[in-house]
Design brief:
This is Chemokine interleukin-8-like domain-containing protein. GO terms for molecular function: chemokine activity. Helix content is about 35%, strand content about 20%. The chain is an alpha+beta fold. It has one domain (about 20-85): OB fold (Dihydrolipoamide Acetyltransferase, E2P) (Beta Barrel). A 3-stranded antiparallel β-sheet has the order 1-2-3, with helices on one face. The N and C termini lie far apart (about 60 Å).
Length: about 90
C-alpha cells in the first residue's frame, strides 16, 4: 500500500476516534446546598469515563458527586435544580 494512503488513513482514524472527555476520577461525599448548584450533568461509566458520577457546577467550578442511582440526596438536588431552571 502506498505510504501516503497509510498516513491519510491513520489521520482519518485519529480524527474519528473522538474528542477526549473531562471525566470525574473520584467523587466527594460532601452534601452541597442546592442553592449553590448552577447546573449538573450525569456521567456514566463505560461511555468514555471510568466511573459513574454527577458533575455539578458551583461558582464556575465543576465538582464530582456520587451517581444519583441509590443516592436520595443527589436525586433531590437534581430535582431542585431542574425546577429552578424551569421557572
Amino acid at each position: 500500500m502506498d505510504p501516503k494512503v497509510c498516513v491519510l488513513l491513520l489521520l482519518l482514524f485519529a480524527a474519528l476516534s473522538g474528542v477526549p472527555q473531562d471525566c470525574c476520577l473520584s467523587v466527594a461525599q460532601k452534601r452541597l446546598p442546592a442553592k449553590q448548584v448552577q447546573s449538573y450533568k450525569v456521567q456514566e461509566a463505560g461511555k468514555g469515563c471510568d466511573i459513574s458520577a454527577t458533575v455539578v457546577q458551583v461558582k464556575g467550578r465543576m465538582l464530582c458527586l456520587p451517581h444519583p442511582e441509590g443516592q436520595q440526596w443527589v436525586q433531590k438536588l437534581m430535582r431542585i435544580v431542574d425546577q429552578r431552571q424551569q421557572q
